[in-house]
Amino acid sequence: MARRDADGCYFIVGRFKDMKFGEVGLILAVARAHSTPSEESVLRICADRLAGYKVPKRVIFTDALPYSAYGKIQKAELKERYLNSAKG
User: Fold this and answer.
1) How far apart are CA 18 and CA 20, in angstroms?
2) pTM for this predicted structure
């Protein structure tokens, strides 16, 4: 799971378990207004910029990320909400 800040930097905030590889990357993406990126386009960008073993296996688009009162992403809520769907 990753987040992207206003400058376009991505931050990894978690991983999901995989039967074959142990843990593999998962991107939770919030698209900008009037933008419709595809899972393939995001993975292609990652493949162009990352080593092969670092490229996430899945991209899930969401409307918003949950933040705490302190402005931090609530990783536990994201894991609860998305990891079961990512395993399928």
Assistant:
1) 6
2) 0.62
Which region holds residue 84: left if phi is over 0, alpha if psi is between -120 and 50, else beta? alpha
Question: What CATH number does domain 2-87 carry, 1.10.10.10, 3.40.50.300, 3.30.70.1170, 3.30.300.30?
Answer: 3.30.300.30
- Could you tell me where the DSSP H helices lie in the chain? 39-49, 75-87
pLDDT digits (tens, 9 = 90+) for 28-46: 888 888 888 899 999 999 9
Three-state DSSP at 52 gives helix
Separation of alpha carbons 71 and 40, rounded Å:
30
Strands (E), the chain: 2-4, 10-12, 15-18, 22-29, 58-61
